Amino acid sequence: MLRGPMAWTTQLVYGLVLSALAAAGSYISFRLTTRSDATQGTINAYSRLDLSGLNPLWISLAAAIGEELLFRAALQPLLGVWITSIVFLLTHTPVYRFRKLNRATLVQALGVFGASVALGFLYQYVGLLAAMMVHTALDVVGLYVVRTVLWSKAAAPAAQRK
Q1: Which domain range does residue 105 map to?
Q2: N or C: which end of the chain has fewer CB within 10 A?
Q3: Number of domains in the chain
Q4: Distance CA 16, CA 13 (A)
């Protein structure tokens, strides 16, 4: 399963380096756009999840492993990077509420599609392990940022009551 264009040890190194870069980029992006409609839509979509403790890590691992096995290992060899990325985007439609065609929706759609294309090429040229690691990093950062924003919103009314 972890066989790919590169040995699993090389995939691990690429995965660690690219995960750090992806996590930093994702964090900066979320922080710069916290008040945007697109980011608020993402935060609202994930507000129903229990994001306490290590749950963001476990949720991210489950999503990354499952989605990379399905989209990269199973579908991409049949459909290619671009069509697989369109399918990836369409499966994320309910989560990101892409049904509304406004600027926020288009920004989210381009972000999900772009991430999928990047993960697709990472899988193709490096391997599945690296793609899983980067996917996990992106999701972990996103969920921890969502948690931080939600907790700060919950703390604000409590602080005002004092």
Answers
A1: 9-47+65-151
A2: C
A3: 1
A4: 5
Instruction: Kindly tell me the sign of the dihedral angle through the C-alpha atoms of 55, 56, 61, 63.
Output: positive
Is 161 inside a domain boundary?
no
* Residue numbers of the chain with a pLDDT score lower than 70: 1-2, 93-100, 156-162
Find, among 30, 57, 52, 26, the residue nearest to 41 by Cα: 30
Distance between CA 104 and CA 142 in Å, rounded?
Answer: 17
Q: Indicate whether 90 belongs to any domain.
A: yes
- Structural domain includes residue 162: no
**Is residue 19 a contact partner of residue 137, using CB atoms and an 8 Å limit?**
yes
Nearest to 137 by CA among 4, 9, 1, 16: 16
pLDDT digits (tens, 9 = 90+) for 41-67: 788 888 899 999 999 999 999 999 999
Q: What is the DSSP letter of 115?
A: H
Q: Is residue 53 part of a domain?
A: no
pTM confidence score: 0.88
